[in-house]
Amino acid sequence: MSVARSETIFTWGAPPVKFGTGAVDELAHECAQHGLSRVLLVTDPGVAATGVPERVRDGLAAGGVEVVTYGDVHVEPTDASFRAAAAVAAAENWDGIVAVGGGSSIDTAKAMNLLTAHPDADLMDFVNKPVGGGRAVTAPLKPLIAVPTTAGTGAECTAVCVLDVLDLKVKTGISHPRLRPALAVVDPLVTLTVPPGVTASAGMDVLCHALESYTARSYDSFAAKDPADRVAYCGANPISDVFTERALGLLARSFRTAVMAGNNLAARSDMLLAALFAGMGFGNAGVHIPHACAYPIAGRVRDHHPDGYPAAEPMVPHGQSVAVTAPAAFRFTYPAGADRHLRIADLLDPRAAELAADPRDRLPLALTNLMRDIGIPNGLSALGYGESDLGGLVDGALAQQRLLATAPRDVGAAELEQILADSFTNW
Asked: Measuring CA to CA, how many Å separate 55 from each of 31, 49, 52, 326?
């Protein structure tokens, strides 16, 4: 009788990074290094209103780089918005992409790059199973330079793009190493005008990236894979752990300040570094229960209009949708790795050790104290959900098997229902 072998190999990857004030002014030089003479500049209307994309476009033009602008990125992208953007990209002549914005712009740029390289494929062919076909990226993609304007998704260094599938009312993703940008250009100056509500939500995404990747199943707890079958999310590993711990220290020092005093350049710099480091962590280790729950929470929204975001349509920003179930999720995962949970609780808020009578409550308490301070909605009820929504939310979370497989404890419908039920109010 043969015995299944455990994995002995982990993979880790990240793009080159240029970080610092004024970094965006060197984009023309970086385009030249990648052989780019005509680029597609991808952004959204809200970011365009800050003047940052115009500054980037002028700098590129002054450096001899032709620019074609796509400025209609949908905040919280959908399958429809990805297809519309890709159709525009296919009609233009360009040799690389410069994405300027938050995760929505960078993820849209990834999808444009992917779909124009595979003109005969459908978007859903590449979406992760079981929602989509899980097809591998087979064609080479053009260079993508990512310029984040929020400290949030870490999309500038990950191999994932996220979207809402409208008909299914679920958020999901596409994951493949070739989606990772060729370069991340990270400039704290471009984040100074981000509103407090957006700063808070985006920062909670950073925080959950760090917490989930640190508490994920270890890479060597999975069954051994063939080389062609290894995935971007391989489980917790020594390299991701280092970046995650550093991200948590930066968040503990500067998150509240960045929300409450947005013109504080030092705090904004810390938050961008934290987003970058957390992206380098989760972009290889993976995320789990809070992100799996977040996708249906965002996808099934009815009437939530968050501060700082476009008011035209209801939405739950990704960071809010991840944050609301995080306290209950980490209380559930605590038995699978008490030492790790206590370590990250101490990194995030050393006071939690004094305030929590039960050790398993330390991390949830550190989270709820922070969320209350920065104005994150108090649970699912504050996002417009009631008990009658539990079934749909559970079903949507169960569809995220790519994420749930990384959870340190086995989680099924009953466990997800309890986590979601415990998340209607957090304090």
From this structure: 15, 11, 5, 38
